[in-house]
Amino acid sequence: MRSYKFNWLKPVTLASIFLIIASGLFGQLQDTKQLGKDIEKYMTASIKHDYFSGSILIAKNGKTIFSNGYGMANFEHQVPNTVNTVFNIGSIAKQFTSMAIMQLVEERKLTVNDSICMYLNNCPPAWKSITIRNLLTHTSGIMNYSRLADWDEKHSIQPYTPEELIDLIRHLPLQFTPGEKFKYSNTNFDLLGLIIEKISGITYHDFLEKNIFKPLGMKNTGPVNPQKLITNRASGYYTKLNSFVNAPYENSALSFGSGSMLSTLSDLLLWDQALYSTKLVSQKTLDEMSAPFKADYGYGTEIYKMFDKNTIGHAGSQNGFSTMLLRFPEENITVIVLSNSDQASGGRVAKNLFGMVLNKPYKIPEPTAFEMLSIAYEKGGVEPTLQLCKELKKRTVEKFDEEDVLGRFGYDLLDLKKVKDAIKVFTYVIETKPKSSYAHDYLGEAYLYDKDYDMAMMYFKKALELDASNEYALKGIKKVEEALKVK
Q1: Which of 40, 328, 399, 471 has its Cα between 20 and 30 A from that of 18?
Q2: Would you state the pLDDT for residue 93?
Q3: Is the pTM of this model over 0.70?
């Protein structure tokens, strides 16, 4: 797998910035000239230390006041990100699914209090008390299919249809009584996608195109399709130590009700501004959608306070992409962050950008422990890296947790086929956290990679002794047993 060093990631030149200087536009808010300087300083640090690659936009009253692209849409061909780059927006798409459902509600083709079994095939008896509102608000109790134990290595890469994806969890018991509490589940929104198709008689994507994207002029928004040639589409990237690697293409079934939609900064701004109008649904319906039900979640959107301002938004994360759409209705300010780096948190960047706009405190990214360890490993190998761990533990500038930081570090080494070094790293974690169940299953996984099945089994069993609920250790034991059968 080909990788690229992070120091290749350079910000687009200042000449490409779209910055409108308008006197009186912000009033008490940040001066726009200074805002541009602050943003560039912040983004330069985010590129260096948080591995940001992507595009950002800030708007006031629907007018863009800052927009720029950073890093590369495609590292292999050295294609830079621009304000027109097309990104996978992940779960931001849940807002579109919610809107489609509420359009059907206004057409009186369903109500949010209807049982989902009125519209679904092969509906389990346990689901009969679940309403459409429960799906919209993540209060159904239905398990999130992407939390299945073998999701990453098995199910996420299978060419399932949406129905087949639901079949993975259809037989499982509910996690709680419907309406009792909030628990995020992508399954909820894929079920809503199936309901939209059942009622409308057309595909989920055709419904969105006809009733949302086309009326709003969102010409660059639509489903993720790995086979289709899409102009300006960004590739998604994972991070391994101090380098980028290509993220795998996703299961096309994931481009359904729960997320994985393609879009751009300008299209999402059109969507944002439509929510200040009644172009798509009535004001009464908009108010219902943005009212928190449980855990500050409405219909496909999060509602909370940020800098003492009412905030409506949603994050997205999918196969090398991290995104955030934040809306601040009282000031009609919009912040959109679309990143094609899994390590760069779209939510963190968006929050700090909003802090700059409001002249509120924000944090400039600084060197992280993981970054320093990656550089140390690149220069001298595993021994200097572990020595640096001991030094970092003594510092107070950053909370350093070996289990957390070195857990990720060790798994990156496994992915890069540095198995012996990963074993040394995980052994060190156990030395510092001898009672940690996860530290032991880390080492078990490393020995499994090394095909030392006796050692792998020993550490997986020790992990279970420390925590009988450690599902990773249980899964590890099954892998060892399967490997021994083949052997």
Answers
A1: 328
A2: 95
A3: yes
Q: Diameter of the chain by CA atoms? A: 73
Helices (H), 59-128: 94-106
Query: Amino acid letter at 8?
Result: W
Q: Is residue 22 assigned to a domain?
A: no
pLDDT at 393: 79
pLDDT of residue 398: 58
Range of the domain at 385: 369-486
The number of folded domains in the chain is 2
Contact (Cβ atoms closer than 8 angstroms) between residue 162 and residue 198: no
User: Is 343 part of any domain?
Assistant: yes
Res 256: pLDDT: 87
Residue 10 within any structural domain of the chain = no
CATH for 425: 1.25.40.10
Residue-level pLDDT at 29: 58
DSSP class of residue 209 equals: I
Can you give the pLDDT at residue 299?
Answer: 97
In what order do the strands lie in the sheet containing 333-339? Answer: 18-19, 63-70, 54-60, 333-339, 321-328, 309-318, 302-306
Q: Which letter does DSSP use for residue 251 in this model?
A: P
468: left (phi over 0), alpha (psi -120 to 50) or beta: alpha
Clarify whether residues 424 and 283 are in a common domain.
no
Looking at residue 207, which CATH number applies to its domain?
Answer: 3.40.710.10
Asked if 170 and 116 count as a contact pair (C-beta separation under 8 A), the reply is no
- Which stretches in the chain have pLDDT values below 50? 1-27, 397
> Which of these three, 322, 357, 392, is where a domain ends?
357
Here the tokens at position 475 are 């899964």
Q: Is the dihedral of CA 205, 208, 214, 219 positive or negative?
A: negative
Per-residue pLDDT at 26: 45
